[in-house]
Amino acid sequence: MSLPTPVTLSAPPAPPLGHAAADNVLLVPIDRVPEASRPAVLAARFLVQYSKPHTIAAYERDLRGWFAWCVERALDPLAVCRSHIDLYVNELRTVHGASTATIARKCSTLSGYYRTAVVEDAIAVSPTVHLRRPKVPQDSQTLGLDEDEVTALLDAARQRGPRAHALMVLLAHDGLRISEALGLDVEDFSRRGKHRIATITRKGGARKSVVLTTPTWEALGELVGDRVTGPVFMTSRGGRLDRRAAGRLIKKTAVDAGIEDADKISPHSLRHTFITLALEAGVPLHRVQDAADHADPRTTQRYNKERFRIDDTHASYAVERMLRDREAAANRNDEDSAS
Q1: Residue 125, in any domain of the structure
Q2: Mean of the per-residue pLDDT values for the chain?
């Protein structure tokens, strides 16, 4: 992974934090690094902990946004206090309209960055200590699709061509993350008995096998054709399709399908749809959790609309029926004893 070149934050625009740095960025003791360069050097030491390009890019964007905010106010990022971060968070919410999830992630990034600064003895105490982070809603905020909408989307994708159709069937039928789908190579497909399998790179780098449905296998077969190597999803120039292009393709297809709020449909919308429909179909939570590769079942539960349903199966009614039945049984026993 490339690392940042030390930069002077008072001279924006600063070079990207995640690109082109010498190894000594990580090796030189922080007290021997020029003060103006320390924030960026510490950013390099924070980012080197991560290996996934998407994760690094997200944290890099968060840090660049924070550094830019500090530069505009003539603040040294290593001399701020918690009130500065509180003000920054408030502006994200009120001025920029950032979502709760986005703010929570940015707070997490800053917490990790300043934790690195403390470990490196660049500061004594993190300004994020006791920072009040926004509470992320329990239910997923991603716009998902119902059965009719996902059917319309897949029909529209089929009209767009094999690439669009294969991508959207794969996401909707198998619930892959977009990075997992786009990372597929033709060599990753195999059979295991009667099952068709794709070996994908999961979040964190682990290689795992996922089952492909018959419609997914057929759509992928139409796309791949006679190819035996290379990326499954390719650009017209032969390169690997990237997530931005995939996102644009999904939005355009959602427009073709006449889906309301089509501009809000994203690759994750199809993963959301897969998880929600699987739970509605009665698949046990732990099986859906495994299929979605969620480390925590509470993450899967965020997609479960059934938990908000109030009907005769509600837990309160179930407990009441159990206690009522127990009381009735006790009364019958008393009557039998009396007689």
Answers
A1: no
A2: 82
> Could you tell me the maximum CA-CA distance found in the chain, to the nearest angstrom?
96
8 is a domain residue? no
Query: What is the span of the domain harbouring residue 332?
Result: 312-339
Tell me whether residue 35 is in a domain: yes
More confident residue, 234 or 326: 234
Amino acid of residue 150: V
Residue 276 contacts residue 175 (beta carbons within 8 Å): no
C-alpha–C-alpha distance, residues 305 and 24, integer Å? 51
| pLDDT 10s digits, 51-94 | 877 788 889 999 999 999 999 999 999 999 999 999 999 999 99
- Return the SS3 of 304: coil
**What pLDDT score does 303 carry?**
57
Distance CA 236, CA 244 (A): 15
Q: Angle CA(185)–CA(190)–CA(191) in degrees, nearest 5?
A: 160
Reduce the DSSP state of residue 277 to 3 states and report it.
Answer: helix
> The tokens 């239910």 sit on which residue?
139
**Quick one: which H or E segment has residue 180?**
helix 178-182
